[in-house]
Amino acid sequence: MDIGVRELKxxxxxxxxxxxxxxxxxxxxxxxxxxxxxxxxxTARLAEGIAGGxxxxxxxEDAPRRVPRAASRRTSAQALxxxxxxxxxxxxxxxxxxxxxx
Length: 102
Fold this sequence. Notes:
The chain has helices spanning 5-10, 12-20, 43-52, 76-95, and strands spanning 2-4, 25-29, 32-37. The chain has a three-stranded mixed sheet with strand order 1-2-3. It is α+β, with helices and mostly antiparallel strands. Strand 2 (25-29) and strand 3 form a beta hairpin. Helices cover 44% and strands 14% of the residues. The mean pLDDT is 85. The protein folds into two domains: 2-52, YefM-like fold, CATH 3.40.1620.10; 75-102. The chain is built from four helices and three strands, in the order E-H-H-E-E-H-H.
């Protein structure tokens, strides 16, 4: 559907609803195309998937759930230092070298 800028201003809410419902609306200025109003990409396919049962809609449309903190009180620097220490210890054992400070 084509609609002029002046008419679009008068019927903006209606045109936005129609675009959200899947209609593509071409906006013209003095007969020349200026813009396109269309649904947000993917929303129609998402609705189709939910209706078809191959996509499950979220139960609550809130922000993503927070990931619980790890039980450890170590900092990431401490954990990294321990991991590196273990790696060096394993390397020394494989090479048959003495391990100091373990």
